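Hello K.,

You asked for the raw outputs rather than the summary table, so here they are, unedited. I folded two proteins back to back in the same session to keep the settings identical. This is the first:
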Amino acid sequence: MKAIVCTQYGPPDLLQFKEIAKPAPASNEVLVKICAASANPLDWRIMRADPFFIRLAFGLRKPKIEVLGSDFAGRVEAIGKDVTQFQPGDEVFGAKGFAGGGFAEYVCAGEEELAPKPANVSFESAAAVPVAAITALLGLRDKGGIKSGQRVLVDGASGGVGTFAIQIAKAFGAEVTAVCSTTKIDTARSIGADHVIDYTRENFTRNGQQYDLILAANARHSTFAYRRALSPDGICVKAGGEPTLQGAFEDLLVAPILSMAGHKKTCSFFAKLSKEDLMVLKELLESGKIVSVIDRSYPLSETAEALRYLQAGHARGKVVLTVEH
């Protein structure tokens, strides 16, 4: 099969589009013929080993995982003898998390990593969902404890996580304020934002407005700045941003101390994918309460260009890869 192979850390030019062995499913796995995949920031961070401590998890000298990519959608090609939930021909979507394998024509996945693809959603739209939407869902529901009627702000509202966060917050009945750049205001409004703040013209942490829940999909402000924008019992959930030493210091030490000292809370987290949450997203997709915002689509052979575009930070929503067999 054809796949995008990463054999050394560095720029996208080092990625290879080449023939590799087609995987065979284990007894509890499903072999999926991939129709579409999507790129996430983690993919280019692993590719570039940026920040450097990425190497501690993915290999010091070269990547342990040669085929990157988490999100995918496609058709079941074959199943292991112990698989009970899927049959060949079923349309599915899912994610491999840190295991990779999505930037290829085929991938093996466990049943718990898959959900039936809604019939009213394309493979491209389904592939754009898992990592970004589950991050938004867990940040708002599990970490943020979102409730109907709350004032919710999404910082970094135009990226993959942010576009889903706006829609999921609206599905929970919140009043949503989106923070994004000038060129992406219309996108935020089109997917349900009640208010939009252009961060190039206004700093929401200093305008006097306060929110019950802030989801920092692009945590560009300090812990102290986010706390200024919280209501007396509010919470800020950091779900992304540039990994820096200052940010790590605040997340690991400053935020917990400040959270213990008052009613305002700040936390950060890494999303853990689950079958249950994939099924929640399936229902939201079927009902039309969430839709995938896709900025650009590239053929699998042009994955390097897709990651280069994603890394530039200008994507409106998700960047998708299509697979032609």
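The second followed immediately with the same parameters:
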Amino acid sequence: MPADWVYWLGRGNADPKLLGGKALGLDRLLRLGLPSPSGFCVTTAAYARYLDAAGLRGTIDALTSQLPALAARERLAALSTQHPFPADLHAAVADAAAALSGSDPSQPLAVRSSAAGEDAAAASYAGQHATILGVTAAGLETAIRTCWASLWSERAVAYRLSRRLGFADALMAVVVQPVLPAESAAVVFTKHPVTGAADQIVINAAQGLGEAIVSGDITPHTIILDKATLAVRDLVPGDGPSWFPDPALAHHALQTLGELAVRVEALLGAPVDLEAAYAFGQWHLLQARPITT
């Protein structure tokens, strides 16, 4: 059984092409000693194993030549959901899931797409691929195949075509981590994503899990910090209740999030876009990528 089908984040020196953008970013965070949940990546090599086992290579080549035709895109997405894992890949993923959850089959997992080329300096694919939260071990294979299928989502295909990226290297890895019981979540930009002001940190925040912010389902609370002092420059309320019900905790969490964002930017050497969740009394980084426009 090839060792490159499953990669434990932060524990080795994997080929970036195996991990995809999101997993590569999380792997880097853990290597730098930053707070991020443990987890593993079902690599692009595992996806390739699935395609080969099902004999799908020729069909995919033929269909990608017909994109962006709707019928071709729908057929490509369906290919990733119609075939079960081969036995060796099923065993590798099941063993990793058992190790991650401590053999508790009810442990809720977050399953996130990590496409090759995603979250690079010139291409973000933000929000274009699937994320499934609350998956248990029994549903993990289906969730992984759903992430693979999202490689062919309407938005992802349109983005690839608009950037002239082609489909020859269109491969998908998948990140698997425990779901954190987040009190609040935030998306953070270490320079203003609209004005480009490098002396500001922009935070979009809401109570609970952060997927609603990323997907655009809600209008988050927006806080702008001075990067040098972390003082609040502006606050624009969003939908729903305050992102932290306790004002004292909100102030502390805001300062620690700003400090963490500045630290990540310094370590990575460029302005970054972060996703974070507040749980167990601290912030946990769920993603870090270069800011793209």
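The first helix runs from residue 16 to 31.

Happy to rerun anything if the numbers look odd on your end.

Regards,
P.
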